[in-house]
Amino acid sequence: MAQRSIQGIQDVRIRTLTMHSVIAPENFQFINNHQKWTSSLIWTVLVVTLSTSFVMGVNNGGPNQYNSFIVPWARGYPFPCQKADDAARWVATVWWDCNYTAISLFNKTGYYYLPAIPADKQVLQSIIDAAHSICFVIGGTIGGLTGQYWYLLFTRRNAICVGMVLAVIGSLLMIIPLEIYNGYTKGDPSRIQILDALENKDIAVALLYLARFFSGWSAGMCCVVSTIYLMDISPRTMRGKVVSFHQLFVVIGLLVGQIVGLPWLLGQHNTWNWGMSWIGLFPLAGCFLVWSLPESPRWLVQEHQRNEAAASLRTLRQTTSIQAELDEIERQEATVAIQDVSIYEVFTSNRYRWPLLTSIALNAIQQLSGINSVFFYSNKTFSSIGFAGDKIYWGVLSTGIINLIMTAASLRFVETFGRRPLILYPLIIITITMILLCISIQIHIPILSLVLTLIFIAVSAVGLGPIPYIYPNEVFTINMRPAALSISMFASWLCNTRK
Predict the structure, then answer these.
(1) In Å, how far are 147, 372, 428, 431, 440 from 366, measured between CA atoms?
(2) First CA to last CA across the chain, in angstroms?
(3) Which site in 31, 335, 350, 424 is 20 to 30 Å from 382, CA atoms measured?
(4) Residue 176 pLDDT level (bands cut at 50, 70, 90)
(5) What cellular-component terms does GO give this entry (predicted)?
């Protein structure tokens, strides 16, 4: 065994295996210690995913329910009946006694309806209306690109805490806008009421954008620091499954965000800020609980802290028989540079060029497929294709439910079928589905459009959902992983800006 170990260390010819495998030296002897879930590993995964991934999902899914309230509010029309979207008008009619058939378009103040946008200004106004989502995406792009640098400043575990702090800041800032700029007068407000309401409008809107930026920054960091940590603490045979829990809790958060955004809960013109800020309680709790979690044993080995790495493995595996796994980690680390490499070095390395290109491509395809557009704008989309009233909300809710069901199923699929089939075959189905969806929307068949949308979501969830997070963690060695994943997540969030 010693001879084989020496041979494995000496043979440093690195090769990239298939999408089912990881980068490893020739003749490397992997140890299968048949590790399973332990209470410590479950607790660690839950704390990390609930404090980061779940939060990211809520911040992604919630605004879709609130856009019809945020848009008029940000334009300067904060009162209950000042709505243009069909869903928002239904809410205003049921809960705020607004009557859009009996009130003249030219009412006393001209503030009952939103004024029409001139044709030559509609594109610019659409960009302004989407500014809060753009701020979220910009923050995510920065968070994804800079994720690896927090690893250089802190440990693997402690870098996660930085993302939690950013999420808490975003949530706290989100509380303020409706507290300093609002309009709660039913019916047609007087001009004095309008002037009073608009006094702090610019400050409130700026705080909204800032809150979304910090939430996006946290989400971008989460895609890097959380997934690498989950990979590091996982038994080798369970890494794909454990990292998939990041995507699972993202979609759980997305569904919860949709539920909380229903008008029966916080989906009202005077409560949407609370619907987007309550989630800060989870990263706030995580800031305290994270210190109870074990540090990444791989990072400790990399830092020459063998005893601490052994203690971390014993905690995670809940056994003293960790010597074989510790030796395996040390042998793997012996084949790579001790220090994390930079983003520039990843780009210029011939050895890692193909894994890097495929990682970028997977994340770009995930975003360019349009999956996030569904969750960002399904409320408006379902309204435009013929759904009305509460049917819009049930349609939106169905997208979150099918996404959760299929993402949960992907936890088994990702290890059963492997990575390559879960990318190639779903992409074929997605292409066919999108063609049919375009036709269905054009000929205006609402139910068929909804069914095709749900098929698109289901197929995306089993492949394009988890694989782009798993693949970079598997094809790069530990020293390359932070930089490579940062580049991949930067590509993902950058492509997200197209929405």
Answers:
(1) 20, 9, 14, 13, 23
(2) 55
(3) 424
(4) very high
(5) membrane
Distance of alpha carbon 37 from its chain centroid, rounded? Answer: 25
Identify the DSSP state of 53. Answer: I
> CB under 8 Å to 18, separation ≥6 — which residues?
420
Question: What is the residue range of 100's domain?
Answer: 38-293
* Three-point CA angle 381, 249, 281, nearest 5°: 95
pLDDT digits (tens, 9 = 90+) for 255-266: 999 899 999 999
Identify whether 360 is part of a domain.
Answer: no
Tokens of 244: 């998939």
As a three-state string, the secondary structure of 434-469 is HHHHHHHHHCCCHHHHHHHHHHHHHHHHHCCCCHHH
With a CB cutoff of 8 Å and minimum separation 6, the contacts of 341 are 349, 479, 480, 483
- Average pLDDT over the chain reads 81
Name the more confident of 295 and 303.
Answer: 295
Residue 200 included in any domain: yes
pLDDT of 409 over the 60 cut: yes
Average pLDDT estimate for 284-302: 91
8-state DSSP, 115: P
C-alpha span between 206 and 282 (Å, rounded):
25
Alpha carbon distance 338, 345 (integer Å): 14
- Whether 176 is covered by a domain: the verdict is yes
DSSP 211: H
In CATH, what number is assigned to the domain containing residue 255?
Answer: 1.20.1250.20
The helix/strand/coil state of 15 is: strand
Residues in Cβ contact with 401 at an 8 Å cutoff, skipping those fewer than 6 apart: 255
How confident is the model at residue 342, as a pLDDT? 59
Q: Which two tokens stand for residue 373?
A: 């557009």
Residues 323 and 311: beta-carbon distance below 8 Å: no
Tell me the C-alpha distance between 11 and 325, whole Å.
Answer: 20
Q: Residue 25: which pLDDT band, with cuts at 50, 70 and 90?
A: very low
CA 336 to CA 282: how far, in whole Å? 37
Q: How many helices (H) and strands (E) does the chain have?
A: 25, 2
In the predicted structure, residue 3 carries a pLDDT above the cut 60:
no
Query: Do residues 407 and 426 lie in contact, with contact meaning Cβ atoms separated by under 8 Å?
Result: no
Query: Tokens 């009202």 — which residue?
Result: 268
Sign of CA dihedral 387, 392, 397, 399: positive
> Containing H/E element for 25?
strand 24-25
What are residue 24's phi and psi, to 5 degrees?
Answer: -155, 155
DSSP one-letter string for 160-221: HHHHHHHHHHHHHHHHSHHHHS-----SS--HHHHHHHGGGHHHHHHHHHHHHHHHHHHHHH
Q: What is the pTM of this model?
A: 0.81
Whether the Cβ atoms of residue 397 and residue 263 lie closer than 8 Å to each other: no
What DSSP element (H or E) covers 472? helix 467-475
Model pLDDT, residue 13: 34
Number of independent structural domains in the chain: 1
| Single-letter amino acid, residue 36 | K
For residues 419 and 359, is the Cβ–Cβ distance under 8 A? no
